[in-house]
Specification:
Blueprint: E1 6-10, H1 16-31, E2 35-42, H2 49-54, H3 58-77, E3 85-92, H4 95-106, E4 110-115, H5 126-132, E5 136-141, E6 150-154, H6 159-174, E7 180-187, H7 200-220, E8 228-235, H8 241-251, E9 256-260, H9 274-282, E10 288-291, H10 301-304
Parallel strand pairs: 1-2, 1-4, 2-3, 4-5, 6-7, 6-9, 7-8, 9-10
Antiparallel strand pairs: 5-10
Helix pairs in contact: 1-3, 8-9
């Protein structure tokens, strides 16, 4: 997996900013990141021309005010001992488009955004960013703490699950092996199991054995280094594996959920997978890292920005 050298942090002048700045500091320290772009996007301004003519410095003053507010929150919450170059960028326009364009221009490795539940404001459009960004996305719920002691990696043993597990291993390595990785596979008993002559319990055991065999094949393809990886098999009783993932994350007190974006080529780049989509929608308690091999969306970014 690539190194997280350049980070974009999406701030919006709410209390969420303090949490995001603390996460940015944590990530920068563990990855020895080189550059952080603290960014704020002002919605499209519809200011009449005659007003702008009368007050020509209106927009520039607004931008300067936003920059100063970002600098204050960063000075308060970012560890000054962490040596990293920072820039403060204020953009005007549609939030997701401006962030996507900035990430593309700066060749960012990670976009850091907030997930609000009780704080005012709409927050950042995480779903659109997850689909269209050319790098990974970390979605941080409000009041989260930057820790990586327990990492939950949902897996269907696919290539993009491999990306997610390798990212978890990389994080664990940077945490000096103190992180525990739980690789969760959610399996289900197919509705037509009774045609086999087996009972529900018998076919459930067959599905579990199949998942166990597939995990062993899957893990053999991965360099686990010195990481502790624990397989976890969860039977889906309600045809909703995302609920099982979120429930397990809460049960084990996971510090982060890591899932791979499904799109790995230009043809599939806009598809991050139904599980990742629903995790973004439903999970509001645990930081969620959506991993994407850097540059996989790069070939269509210019087109997307015109949509």
């Amino acid at each position: 997996m690539y190194q997280i050298k350049k980070i974009i942090v999406c701030l919006d002048q709410s209390d969420m900013d303090e949490t995001l700045v603390k996460f940015a500091a944590f990530i920068a320290k563990t990855n020895q990141s080189k550059k952080i772009y603290f960014t704020n996007v002002i919605r499209n301004l519809s200011i009449p021309k005659d007003i702008l003519a009368e007050f020509p410095n209106l927009i520039s003053n607004m931008v300067k005010e936003r920059e100063n507010q970002m600098k204050k929150v960063v000075a308060k919450n970012f560890d000054s001992n962490i040596k990293v170059s920072s820039s403060f960028i204020v953009k005007e326009g549609q939030l997701s488009k401006k962030i996507l364009k900035l990430a593309n221009e700066k060749s960012a490795d990670l976009i850091l955004v907030g997930r609000k539940t009780s704080l005012p404001g709409s927050g950042v459009v995480s779903q659109r960013l997850a689909r269209r960004a050319s790098c990974s996305l970390l979605i941080v719920p409000e009041n989260s703490q930057p820790k990586v002691k327990k990492l939950l990696v949902p897996s269907d043993f696919s290539d993009y699950s491999k990306d997610a597990l390798e990212e978890a291993i990389e994080i664990a390595e940077k945490n000096e092996g103190k992180s525990e990785i739980i690789c969760q596979n959610v399996y289900a008993v197919p509705s037509g199991y009774h045609f086999t002559g087996k009972s529900y319990e018998e076919f459930s055991e067959i599905m579990l054995q199949n998942a166990t065999i597939n995990y062993k094949k899957f893990i053999r393809k991965i360099d686990t280094k010195s990481s502790k990886i624990k397989p976890l098999y969860t039977k889906d009783e309600d045809d909703d594996p995302v609920v099982d993932i979120i429930s397990k994350a809460g049960e084990i007190k996971a510090d982060m959920i890591i899932i791979g974006a499904k799109g790995r080529t230009a043809a599939t780049a806009l598809f991050i997978g139904s599980m990742a989509e629903r995790l973004i929608q439903m999970n509001d308690k645990v930081p969620l890292l959506v991993t994407r091999p850097k540059g996989k969306n790069a070939g269509i970014i210019e087109y997307i920005l015109e949509i």
